[in-house]
Design brief:
The protein is α+β, with helices and mostly antiparallel strands. Helices cover 56% and strands 15% of the residues. The chain has a single domain, classed as Orthogonal Bundle (Arc Repressor Mutant, subunit A). The protein is built from four helices and three strands, in the order αβααββα. It is elongated.
Amino acid sequence: MANIDNTRSQMRKGMLEYCILLLLRHSPLYANDIIVRLKQAEMIVVEGTLYPLLNRLKKDGWLRYEWQESTQGPPRKYYALTPEGEEALRQLDCSWNELATTVSILQQHYPAVLPPAGDMPASGNNPE
């Protein structure tokens, strides 16, 4: 089961960057708002994961930020897409659509229930 947990974790990490760009597509957001919206979408992210990623995306030129006054404390850093970030998001949209299509095809063409492990052909004996 540990292998499944690792695979799930890697899948989520791979999607996190794309999900952040999707959230910023329409308007700038404060980091805490990003965390809340990701949680609403059932992707749990902690600040220790988010901030380094936001900094890397800024360094890569995909994000910019500006400080805005807050009614509830100190000024807040709001993140927004740059033109390069918008282009990256367009490319990631295409990649996501290709991946989703591939997974959908595989789900439709192969049975949802796998045969018992003993009934599986040995590695290298695939009849295809």
